[in-house]
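Re: [ENG-882] Designed sequences occasionally contain unexpected residues at chain ends

Forwarding the minimal case from QA. Structure tokens:
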């Protein structure tokens, strides 16, 4: 009798366990269905907003500004740098003053690297070194300034020119002289541009040499660290190109430098001695260039009245990421902080993503001078005429 009772109990327990397992399988099935549905909804919403073209926006808040004639705006360490002939100010999106620096310059130019900015007068002799808190130092040169570059710790490189000779000088963030060198035109050509790496250890110089009607452009790399100290004049690499001019060179990262030419762009890479990584052939006339730390962009003239220009964007491997025709004339094109591309003239603005899809387009009744992105994908800062607007696309 006891044995039979045991078998009945054992059978009941197994049946109960099977019901529990079946119930769990049912719950798991519905959980999987719910997860798939949520993923489908999220994906659909993502592609909807990704493909949506906004033409309207609402103003979240607006602040009035006072700007002098010719004022320009650039992004600086998460804030906004406003500069012109009579001074520079660092402000936030609510126009709250962070610092102010007065000066008198006929042709001010700036160079920014992370938390430092150098403000100089082209063909003048004054440079202000600023960080996120205000003035770090200043420099007064004895020769006209042609180019100025700043590193992320405040080191400043200056290209000057006098009586056919180029002069290079380095200063620290307080404006203390560090080093100098000469670039003689008759030996190595006329210096067109200089580039300084983020850490201030590497510098590139583009030089143009015209000898008996032959054009040659030389790009020379200097290393001011321990590696360069073992080389003559700190030179760690020299590259010469015939029939090509490179008027612009720029370190996009600490180890990647790009030379922008009229027929090609060359990507150099190296932690100590930069070498050629990729040559990009430019088969059309280049109208503009733009870049950030991850991409380089070109605007080409297009033989089409309705679409007068074409944009092409490449990554730092030299692979084309996107190409897109433009149906508007522009006065400025550039990357926003979120890698989107803003094309703007005084009364019109378009924003494209890196797939070439136009995200936003609008015509304005009031002049728009600059656009900044925010952490929110549908919110932007519009620097309108005498007004700063934070807007949300709709």
């Amino acid at each position: 009798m006891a044995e039979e009772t045991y078998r009945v109990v054992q059978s009941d327990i197994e049946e109960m366990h099977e019901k529990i397992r079946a119930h769990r399988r049912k719950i798991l099935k519905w959980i999987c269905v719910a997860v798939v549905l949520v993923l489908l909804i999220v994906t659909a919403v993502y592609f909807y907003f990704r493909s949506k073209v906004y033409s309207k926006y609402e103003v979240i808040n607006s602040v009035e500004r006072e700007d002098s004639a010719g004022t320009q705006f650039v992004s600086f360490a998460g804030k906004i740098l406003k500069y012109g002939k009579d001074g520079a100010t660092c402000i936030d999106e609510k126009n709250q003053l962070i610092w102010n620096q007065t000066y008198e310059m006929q042709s001010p130019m700036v160079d920014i690297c992370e938390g430092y900015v150098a403000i100089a007068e082209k063909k003048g002799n004054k440079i202000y070194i600023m960080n996120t808190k205000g003035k770090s130092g200043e420099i007064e040169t004895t020769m006209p300034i042609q180019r100025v570059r700043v590193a992320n710790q405040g080191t400043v490189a200056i290209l000057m020119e006098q009586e056919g000779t180029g002069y290079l000088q380095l200063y620290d963030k307080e404006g203390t002289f560090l080093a100098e060198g000469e670039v003689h035109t008759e030996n190595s050509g006329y210096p067109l541009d200089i580039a300084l790496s983020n850490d201030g250890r590497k510098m590139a110089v583009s030089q143009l040499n015209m000898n008996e009607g032959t054009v040659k452009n030389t790009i020379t790399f200097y290393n001011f660290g321990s590696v360069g100290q073992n080389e003559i004049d700190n030179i760690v690499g020299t590259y010469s190109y015939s029939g090509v001019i490179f008027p612009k060179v720029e370190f996009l990262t600490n180890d990647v430098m790009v030379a922008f030419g009229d027929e090609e762009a060359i990507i150099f890479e190296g932690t100590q001695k930069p070498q050629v990584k990729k040559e990009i052939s430019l088969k059309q006339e280049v109208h503009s260039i733009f870049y950030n730390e991850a991409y380089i962009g070109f605007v080409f003239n297009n033989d089409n009245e309705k679409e007068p220009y074409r944009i092409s964007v490449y990554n730092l491997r030299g692979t084309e990421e996107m190409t897109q025709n433009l149906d508007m004339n522009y006065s400025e094109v550039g990357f926003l902080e979120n890698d989107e591309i803003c094309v703007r003239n005084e009364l019109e603005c378009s924003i494209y993503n890196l797939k070439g899809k136009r995200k936003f387009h609008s015509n304005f009744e009031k002049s728009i001078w600059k656009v900044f992105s925010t952490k929110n994908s549908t919110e932007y800062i519009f620097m309108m005429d005498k007004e700063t607007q934070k807007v949300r696309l709709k």
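QA comment: On inspection the terminal residues look reasonable. Helices lie at 2-51, 185-188. Proposing we downgrade this to a documentation issue.
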